[in-house]
Amino acid sequence: MKVNRELYLKLNESVLPFVQKPARYLGLETGTTVKDIKTIPLKFALAFPDFYELGMSHIGMGLIYDILNSEEHIACERVYMPYPDMNAKLKEHNIPLFSLESFEEIKNFDIVGFSLQYELSYTNILFMLELSGIPIFSKDRSGPDDPFIGAGGPCAFNPLPLNDFMDFFIIGDGEVTTVEVCNAVLKAKNSLKSGTLGKTDYRNYVKSLLAEIRGVYVPGFSKSVQKSILSDIDLDRKFNGNENTAYIAKHIVPLVETVHNRLAVEIARGCSSGCRFCQAGYIYRPVRERKKEAVINAVKHGLQTTGLEEMSLSSLSTGDYSDIEALLSELADLTSEKKISMSFPSMRIGSLSENILQKTATVKKTNFTLAPEAGTQRLRDIINKNISEDDLLKEASLLSQKGFKTLKLYFMIGLPFERIADLDGIADLIIKIKKTAKGLNITVNVNNFVPKPHTPFQWHPMEKESELNFKINYLKRLLKPLNVNFKYQDPKVSFIEGLISRGDDFTPKIIYNAYKFGAVYDSESRLFNCGAWLKALECEYGYNYNEHKYLYEEKNIDSPLPWDFIDILIDKDFLKEEYKKSRLQNLKSIYTSKSNSSFDGDGVSSQNLLTENCRKVCYLCGVCDFKTVRPVYSSKAENIKMHKKKRKDDEKYINININNDTNTENPVGRASFSELTFIYSKRGAAKYLGHLETVKILLKAFRIIGIPLIYRKSEFTSRPKLSFSNPIPFMSESDSLHIKARVSAEYAAETDLNILSDNINRLLPDGLKIIGINVVKHQ
Asked: pLDDT of 14-44, one tens digit each?
């Protein structure tokens, strides 16, 4: 039940019928937590400054939402960036931005917390604040009536670009810190209510409390801040009486198709590879893994409560998880039995084994993504991408042998010390893959290198637009005869990303001016307004952006950087040493003809120019104190043992045909089966659901209950044998819709259809209801 019933009725009458996919704004998803927001002491609006489909795919949002709502004194509700059509209707009817759960106006919350995932979404934050009726600048918010505006996420590791707009930033892991922020605000609210704190002192008092919390940066109050870090990401949280499950208790299941419409379980945080361009690899150090038992229980619980048909094991490098083989073996029976496909969104080249491919392809052959990053071994050594061409070719060949049809390859251009020969190397690599792995449809994605804060390349200049455009056009000509899909990032977008990510105290003015000149929805490439940014730059600096020295000139390695006050716990000398190694690796490639030739310079020997994976060797970067925070690594002896086991497992699965699944399809042929016809009605808010969305909601409910649907067999994927009534016009209501599904005759005979109908209806959103089930037996 929506608390703000008046607003809900107004939207239903004047707004929702006139926008695309109104289900984005209804808040009818299963798994949401709706509290009586008027009686809860602390109200938190969890804001994602991009579209619903992206925000609902983000694991961090689900974690924070679940943690905050597990606290009795906190009500957490969601808000996303409305699409342009919804934005126009809200403004037309003077409707402020609202939360999905209770339709409460965002300005009435105590805290609004934004997730910072991408720099080009920053103007969306200003838009959402203005649409909510909240002052954009922090200095203009006064007293207890205005909410506190905060932000967290990877982009918060340089908070300066948003300094003028935010009251606080959470730097690092947010699971515990966010609750501490809420408790600090609640403490001040109680003091205000009791009369021990005046209204004029309220905001400064709250900010002083927040500045005392580790991992919280408060502009104007904090001089420096250490990142918040969880030594153990298996938080002491329990649900369903299961003490081994420390993950999300209630997964929100979207009603519309999202970017990643699957159950995502984070199995590890941090990365041990040490790629010198990768910000995530440094700011999320050290590697911390969830216990295998916790992952398995999280998967079981998530699949049981969501009805999703795909799951992914998520981390920066899933294949490096210490117990990945045993984990996959235990999950295999579960996913095969329930016809759940498994995917791995991030696999380091060299960690992809026969066993992993076997488990991935058992139910459905998903697309595979590999990231060589550079076309030559020379450049991969410079950026410390510790993979070999042989590993890449071997894994591409495995994909082809196992029947995979699509391979995505990610490269970067504009990398430090890049040459034309490195671009030629990309084409050469594609030719070798096509010869080794025949039948693969290859997509080449090229991103422009942006030197990010807190990485060894933070001192290196970014390439200009003209140089990047030349390289993109050069690659187009090289790849055109190779019959591959070629995608690339607009260099203008990369320039703005670099401008913001490397910003300083003056950057908020540029962001604000760009917003006023019309830069909104810039994270969506087709809506990117480059002219607004260029106009803002000209107003602020008075020169052409191609002359922006801050981006295009190398920084003195001994000079302070704007973001140095953020302590990511890695010694700056370690980052300097890594940068020097890359320079020396480049010199080595110039003055020697063989990669293993002797070369010494600047006190660093040629043997030490590559930094090994820190699972093998600890380089004392500074992030681990070896007391509360320890690295995940193994000794040489343990590594040998681990690799022997891996080879043994590979040999075990080498001769297994992925189509010979031990969990065979349900027999259809001559065996008897029954056809269940589910008659359902669609009324009220459910009329905003499209036909496909409705069918997917019903199928998720079937999977949660455990209806043993009969599947049709396919070389690539397994699908239940279903048929549907004809789709009705959008926003129409009906009581005579149906979906037919095949099940075993035995199941149909033993099932009480009234109880089955009631169980399904408990899982459906308001307005969608099963009103009858008919059975027909077939031979």
From this structure: 999 999 999 999 988 989 999 999 999 999 9
Give the other-Cβ count within 10 Å of 63's Cβ. Answer: 18
Other CB atoms within a 10 A radius of the CB of residue 763 amount to 19
Q: How many CB atoms lie within 10 A of CB 319?
A: 17
Q: Is 84 exposed, middle or buried (0-12, 13-18, 19+ CB in 10 A)?
A: middle
Q: Which stretches of 266-376 are DSSP H helices?
A: 279-283, 292-306, 324-337, 354-361
Q: Give the model's pLDDT for residue 671.
A: 60
* Neighbour tally for 120: CB within 10 Å: 20
What's the rounded Cα separation, in Å, for the pair 632 and 272?
9
Whole-angstrom Cα distance, residue 587 to residue 46? 49
Secondary structure (3-state) at 647: helix
* Short-list 79, 75, 66, CA closest to 37: 75
**By C-alpha distance, which of 363, 377, 470 is closest to 425?**
377
Q: What 3-state DSSP class applies to 30?
A: strand
Q: Specify the pLDDT at position 714.
A: 60
Q: Kindly report the number of other CB atoms within 10 A of residue 670's CB atom.
A: 6
Strands 673-682 and 768-778: antiparallel
Partners of 717 in the beta sheet? 364
Q: What is the DSSP letter of 505?
A: T
Question: Is 607 exposed, middle or buried, given 0-12, 13-18 or 19+ CB atoms closer than 10 A?
Answer: exposed
Rounded Cα–Cα distance for residues 681 and 767 (Å) = 8
DSSP 8-state class, residue 286: S
- For the full predicted model, state whether its pTM sits above 0.85: yes
- The three state secondary structure string of 258-278 is CCCCCEEEECEECCCCCCCCC
Residues sharing a CB contact under 8 Å with residue 380, sequence separation 6 or more, in sequence order? 372, 373, 374, 386, 387
CB–CB of 70/137 below 8 Å?
Answer: no
Q: How many CA atoms lie within 13 A of 650 on its CB side?
A: 12
Can you tell me the distance from the alpha carbon of 555 to that of 721, in angstroms, rounded to the nearest whole number? 62
Rounded to 5 degrees, what are φ and ψ at 564?
-65, -20
Amino acid symbol at 308: L
The alpha carbon dihedral of 332, 338, 341, 342 has a sign of negative
- Both tokens of residue 46? 């969890």
Largest CA distance in the chain: 81
Determine contact, residues 107/27, Cβ cutoff 8 Å: no
- Please, are residues 750 and 716 in contact by the beta-carbon 8 Å criterion? no
Contact 285, 245 (CB under 8 A): no
Of 379, 398, 376, 400, nearest to 389 by C-alpha is 376
Q: Which domains does the chain have, with CATH numbers?
A: 5-226 (3.40.50.280), 673-778 (3.30.70.2510)
Work out the average pLDDT over 574-597.
81
3-state secondary structure of 124: helix
Of the candidates 338, 405, 412, 427, the one whose C-alpha atom is nearest the C-alpha of residue 379 is 412
Helices (H), 338-490: 354-361, 377-382, 389-401, 420-436, 465-479
pLDDT of 655 higher than 50:
no
CA 340 vs. chain centroid, Å, equals: 21
Structure tokens at 55: 């925000």
